[in-house]
Inverse folding.
């Protein structure tokens, strides 16, 4: 906990577009500060999507980034909203603007289901 995933379209998969390392470090700091998570518990999985489609077929002029943060239940709605806003601000600073590319960035913070379990080896 927390369970963090960053889904993004392939158009951002170059070193000049998405600063994954910097984003993950800053995101973990925000999760610790805002949601009182333990630093050593923060792990982020980046998943590249080959293609994305909207109402009309999307081309390479659109990029999508969606961040999902799953936390154990107990955080207030205000805390979750503050964390979501922080994530969006971090995306503004860690995804470089590119000529001709429209960035669609979103984030959500949700409670993990009570059935959530994990193990480490």
């Amino acid at each position: 906990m927390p369970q963090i995933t960053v889904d993004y379209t392939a158009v951002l998969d170059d070193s000049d577009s998405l600063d994954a390392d910097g984003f993950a470090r800053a995101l973990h700091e925000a999760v610790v500060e805002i949601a009182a998570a333990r630093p050593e518990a923060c792990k982020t999985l980046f998943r590249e999507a080959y293609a994305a489609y909207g109402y009309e077929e999307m081309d390479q002029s659109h990029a999508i980034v969606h961040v999902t943060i799953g936390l154990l239940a107990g955080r207030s709605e205000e805390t979750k909203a503050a964390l979501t806003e922080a994530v969006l601000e971090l995306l503004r600073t860690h995804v470089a603007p590119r000529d001709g590319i429209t960035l669609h960035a979103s984030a959500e913070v949700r409670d993990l289901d009570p059935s959530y379990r994990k193990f480490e080896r």
